Amino acid sequence: MNINEIKATVKTNTREVEFKPAGTPTGWIFDLRHESAQEVQEVMRVFQSKVRDATLKRKTTAYQNLVAQHEDGLRIAHVAGWKWEGGDDEENGRPAFTKKELGHLLQDDRISYHLKKFIDEEVGSLDDFLEKSESS
Predict the structure, then answer these.
(1) What are phi and psi of 131, to 5 degrees?
(2) pLDDT the model gives residue 105
(3) CA angle, 79 as apex, 77 and 85 as ends, to 5°?
(4) pLDDT of 36-83, one tens digit each?
(5) Cα separation, 57 vs 55, whole angstroms
(6) CB 32 within 8 A of CB 76
(7) What is the C-alpha separation between 91 and 79, in angstroms, rounded?
(8) What pLDDT is stored for residue 136 in this prediction?
(9) Spans of all domains in the chain
(10) What is the residue-wise DSSP string for 54-102?
(11) Rounded distance, CA 111 to CA 29, Å?
């Protein structure tokens, strides 16, 4: 096996997963990125840089605030988009995907806990994002 074959073996794809709180189908399909995706890695690099700065300055409160901010920023980076079965319909509570809309939902007391848990659980398994060979 050569380097190019190895790179192809570890390439991650986005994956579509339906949001099903308590097992209830919603028709709300998320397109999720793995932790190794470039967009997610960029959020991690920025966070790590800010943590280093706060640590060097011994600002523990700044560090704690960074962690809280980072959690939702990382979740937003994991979501490449979403779609609705039957299409978007803003008037009927089926908004089109934007990072801003996702950010609002991650702060909404009525759904944030479930949405955060869903994203965290669905991006946790590398195997779900790896390309599958025809033999596997």
Answers:
(1) -65, 140
(2) 96
(3) 165
(4) 888 999 998 998 888 888 777 777 777 777 777 788 999 999 999 999
(5) 5
(6) no
(7) 23
(8) 46
(9) 27-126
(10) HHHTT-HHHHHHHHHHHHHHHHHHHEEEEEETT--BGGGTBPPP-HHHH
(11) 16
Those residues with Cβ within 8 angstroms of residue 63's Cβ, 6 or more apart along the chain or in another chain: 51, 54, 55
CB 95 within 8 A of CB 87: no
pLDDT at 54: 77
**What residues contact residue 105 under an 8 Å CB cut-off, 6+ apart?**
111, 112, 115
Going from the C-alpha of 6 to that of each of 3, 39, 131, the distances in angstroms are 5, 22, 12
Question: Of 70, 35, 34, which Cα lies nearest the Cα of 49?
Answer: 70
Instruction: Tell which residue, 28, 16, 26, has the closest CA to residue 83.
Output: 28
Token pair recorded at residue 60: 């523990």
User: CA-to-CA distance for 83 and 44, rounded, in angstroms?
Assistant: 26
